[in-house]
Amino acid sequence: MNNQPNVVFLRSAQVLKCQLIGNWTIQNIKKLYKKMDRLEGKRDFEFEQIVFDCSKIEEFDTHGIILILHFIKNIPSTCKIEKIGMSERFEKLFVACENNFPPSREKSSKQNILLKNLENLGRLVVEGYKTLTVFFSFVGELTHRGIDSFMFPNQIRFRAVLYHIENSGLMALPIIFLTSFLIGVVIAYQGAVQLEKFGANIFIVEMVTISATRELAPLLTAIVVAGRSASAYTAQIGVMKITDEIDAMRTMGFSPWNFLVLPRVFGLMISLPLLVFFADVVSIFGGMTVAATTLDVSFFEFIDRMHSSVDLKHFIIGLIKAPIFGWIVATIGCFRGFQIDNNTESVGRYTTISVVNAIFWVIAMDAIISVLLTELGL
Amino acid sequence: MIVVKARNIVTRFGDNVIHDGVSFDIKQGEIFGLLGGSGSGKTTLLREMILLQKIAGGELEVLDNSVVGISKENEKKLQSQWGVLFQFGALFTSLNIVENISIALKEYTDIPDKLIFESALMKLSMVGLPEKTAYMYPSELSGGMKKRAGLARALALDPKLLFLDEPTSGLDPKSARGFDELIVMLRQTLGITVVMVTHDKDTIEGVLDRFIILGNKKVIFDGNISELQETTNKELRNFLN
After folding, report:
1. Does the beta-carbon distance from A29 to B191 stay under 8 Å?
2. Has residue A188 been placed in a domain?
3. Residues A251-264: what's their mean pLDDT?
4. Domain limit, last residue, from A52, A80, A100
5. Are A85 and A213 within one domain?
6. How far is A249 from chain B (nearest CA, A)?
7. Does any domain span residue A130?
């Protein structure tokens, strides 16, 4: 038995006979395709009839049939096509395949690359614009609902707010402790080298305290929280959307704003100032430790100096920024969550976007506030 | 020829015993049903056959390979010989329908791309989906359409063995019968062996050659529909009503 798949062409004046041999199955298609390719090469077809002799086919599957149909498709209709020697089983399969074979279509002409890029750019701009308007309406509704819930405080889901304070605030304490301690240490170390040159050791106090409380502690805390919570909010809300939970809530008359968005926003706006306060304390402690070990500024001297020469305003400015950052992180996290479409890929995409957006806007807002306060002379 | 051979299968989730001595054979070219009430472990049994779930005891052979301690190589070979349709289609959401169907062909065969594309469109049409769905994403399709597309994907590699998990559930009656006819046609033309979990009475009566009913952790019936109708066992007779 010779299973070697093959096709033999027998030509006579007007008739081309194709003897199909062996296993016309999925494993052998590539080999057979090359052999059949000769048929396609001839555009000015000289034969009046083509006969496919299938009597020597051992096995046939849909891909063998597709191969034949693929070539038949390209043969001009003036040429008659005949199939002989096909067993009943193969015949049935062949007919089933033939009926479902995609009709040949004009190939779409290739688009100009420049045009395509322009089109993509346009699409990007329009989509950005759309997202922006949707975001504005989201913020508008959020503000409206937020004010509403102050007018009717019994609408606030206190339990949910507490839950989010615990999850996004309390649970973040260890990582906030670690990062802010290290930041305090780093500022103090970098400063210590320079200050020692001038013998101005004691200025380490201003350096650490002001930079930590005013800028670095709020910023880093917000960035860490953005990484932890913006992603979590987006994924939670997105998955709830995919599993129709949000629609279910709506039909039962539970507003997703009151149940999902506001508790998260309030939760972060409350917990971020607390976290920033904690980060202030820890980073100053980090600085103090370095000051005591490398600059001979004892803890008492440090605190004494802090008391006499560092304004309270730096600390307050840092704390005022905190709820703003909290608002940014929670709002972006929730907004991107509602944008998630009904597929798994978009969960990943929007979660990433949400963290990147949240971090960017936290930094941008920090810069805006810095400029504003400097202009105001604070 | 026996395609699936199960002997005294035991399945456990923790202390919860699902199967305790389940035995049956599935012959080549059969349309075989796994039936039983909710929680009787039909889908679990199916998952064991397609290597998604391990059995705790007994023997299970699929296409002459024992699933216990199967080598990676044999596992791959097995996977290229079967197609699986999950209950909700389980299409890859990041790929459009035609990509979903052709991904296995692209990964596992050296067929030219032009043919793969035609093959995907043909399978799509075979399962009764219009050509315009080819470029749609799974999220844009209805549940029934997803199921059909899932079947087209299961058929992509011309499998010898087809596993279907509740193929007609969630379809309207007309589509469900269409689905049944399609499966019978595929069996006739491609000589596929079909193993399905089903609840659909019309499918049980019209399509299945043979089936088992699971109950009390065991096989309580093994035979065809006329045998079931003749049985004197009341519990079994009630099964159909």
Report:
1. no
2. yes
3. 90
4. A100
5. no
6. 21
7. no
Diameter over CA atoms, chain B: 57
ipTM: 0.75
Q: A15: domain CATH number?
A: 3.30.750.24
Q: Is pLDDT larger for residue A109 or for residue A273?
A: A273
Residue B42, domain member (yes or no): yes
Which of A70, A93, A99 comes nearest B115 by C-beta?
A70
Residues lower than pLDDT 50 in chain B: none
Same domain, A70 and A183: no
A95: phi then psi, degrees, rounded to nearest 5: -65, -45
Residue B212: which CATH number? 3.40.50.300
pLDDT interval class at A44 (50, 70, 90): low
Range of the domain at A208: 156-375
Chain A nearest-CA residue for B111? A30
Of A257-266, A307-316, B178-187, least confident by mean pLDDT is B178-187
Higher pLDDT: A59 or A119? It is: A119
Q: What is the pLDDT of residues A239-254, one digit of tens each?
A: 999 888 998 988 888 8
Number of structural domains (chain A) is 2
A125 domain-assigned: no
**Is residue A121, in this structure, part of any structural domain at all?**
no
A57 Cβ contact list (under 8 Å, min separation 6)? A20, A21, A22, A23, A24, A64, A86, A90
Total structural domains in chain B? 1
Chain B partners of A25 at a C-beta cutoff of 8 Å? 158
Q: Band the pLDDT of A45: cuts 50, 70, 90.
A: low
Q: Is the pLDDT of residue A43 over 70?
A: no
Closest-CA residue of B relative to A90 is B189
Give the structural domain span for B98. Answer: 29-51+72-239
